[in-house]
Structures are given as C-alpha cells and as structure tokens.
Amino acid sequence: PLLQDSSDDIEDVSLFDADDDVSRRSKKAKIRHPVASFFHLFFRVSAIVVYLLCELLTSSFIACMVTIILLLSCDFWAVKNVTGRLMVGLRWWNQVDDDGRSHWVFEARKVSAQGGKTSSEAESRIFWLGLITCPMIWVIFAFSALFSFKVKWLAVVVMGVVLQGANLYGYIRCKVGSRKNLTSMATNYLGKQFLRQVSCAGCGSAG
Hints:
By secondary structure, the protein is mostly helical.
C-alpha cells in the first residue's frame, strides 16, 4: 500500500509538469503582437514587391522611386521605434549629451525571474527572418542593377541597402551588446558613422 501511494504521487507530479510544459510552449509559440508583426514585414516586403513590379505597373520612374523610398522610410521608423521593442525587447537610438557629443545607445530588455517578459519564439523568428533576409535581397538588387547598367535604379537600391542594413546593424549590436568588447574600435567608429548617415537619410526621406 505504501509503495502504491508513492507511485501515485510520482505520476501526479509528472502529469502536472507535462501540462505546465505544454502551457509554457503554447505561450512561447503565440504571436502576442500581431499588428507589430504584420507591419514589421509589410513595409519592407511591399518595397521589394514594388521594385520588382513597378515597370509592369507604371512607366513613371519618379512615381516608383518615391513610393519605394516612402515605404523604406516607413519601414526604418517602424522597425527602429516600434517592432524591435515589442517583438524582441531590443532598441537602439542616438542621444546628445550636455557637451554636445553624440552617443549611440543599444539596449536589451532584462528577463524577469518568472520569465514573464520573455519574447515569443514565433515573434522572434518573424523579426529576425525579416530583418536579415530583406537587406540581403536589396544587396542582390544592387549587384543586379550594377551589372545590368540600370544606373537610374542604383540610388533606390542603395537606399534600401542603407536603411535596412542600419536596422540590422543596430539590432545585432543590441543582441551582442554584452560582447561588444570583441569588436575593434575601427569597426565601432565606422558603424556609428553609418548609422548617423542613415538616420539623416531616413528623416529626410520621411519628411
């Protein structure tokens, strides 16, 4: 009788742990911010689609260029200020101190002991997939425009590489911020100059 009671206790604990594990997995797999997840991909994918189909849709290069740059600028702002913070708990920005010196700040959200602030695995996959894949596509477009002598498209394609590459660089710095001492001073300097130029380009395009 004693042995049977012990066995029943072990079985109850095992089932309880299994249910708790299933519940935890379902929470991690759930998309908590569907609107942010949608717009994280919408602007950048739309810019790529417009670039691929613009010559079929209209003969006006100016209309295509303005539409693509507007989409890229909206994407830069949304990813930098909204989707990164909500989907993966990361953000980066520039601030000027009292001496007038510019500083780049890279932050990652701290995870609580209960794990209540952890990001959803589904949202994290969507965020990083869109963040990494789209700049690579614009790099391919850049080489394609260069080798096919489509000089008029180079400015648009370079804008896509710069704006989306800036967000990729910023969020990678947020992700590996604890190991930033592994990067050289030259790399940090070039990255900061790159982000400064991109921020100005993004603000100018949006205005």
